[in-house]
Amino acid sequence: MNRDKTLLKIILKEVTVLQDIAQQLDEHTFLASETAKRAVVMTLINIGEKVKDLSAELKQNHPDVPWRQISGIRDMAAHAYLQLNFERVWNTVIDDIPIFREQLQNIIK
C-alpha cells in the first residue's frame, strides 16, 4: 500500500501539471498549438503509465475511479497520437481531470 500511496502522489503531481498547462489555454489556443497538444498528451501518458502500476487491490477498493479509461487514454495517446480527437482530449482535461484530482486526494487521505 505504501507503493500505491507513492504512485498516487506522483499521479496527483502529473494531474497538477496537466491542470497548470490547461489553465494557461483556452480550447481554441489548445487546438491550434501542436506544442500544447503534445504537452497535454505526454502528461496524460505519464498519468496512465502510473495508473497501470497501481495494485489491483487499490483499484478494486476504489471502483468509482475510471482506472481502465485512464489507462485506455494512455494507450490511445501513445499508440495512435495522430488519430486522437483533440476536442475530446480538451474536454477530458477540463471536465474529467478535476473529478479525478478530487478522487486521488480522497484516496491519499
Describe the protein in words.
The chain is mainly α and 109 residues long. The protein has helices at 2-23, 27-32, 34-53, 56-61, 67-79, 86-108.
Order of helices and strands: HHHHHH
How many strands? 0
Q: In percent, how helical is the residue content?
A: over 70%
Largest sheet: none
Distance between the termini: 13 Å
What's the SSE blueprint?
Layout: H1 2-23, H2 27-32, H3 34-53, H4 56-61, H5 67-79, H6 86-108
Please give a handful of descriptors for the protein shown.
109 residues, mainly alpha
Summarize the structure.
The protein is mainly alpha-helical and 109 residues long. It contains 6 helices and no strands. The protein has one domain.
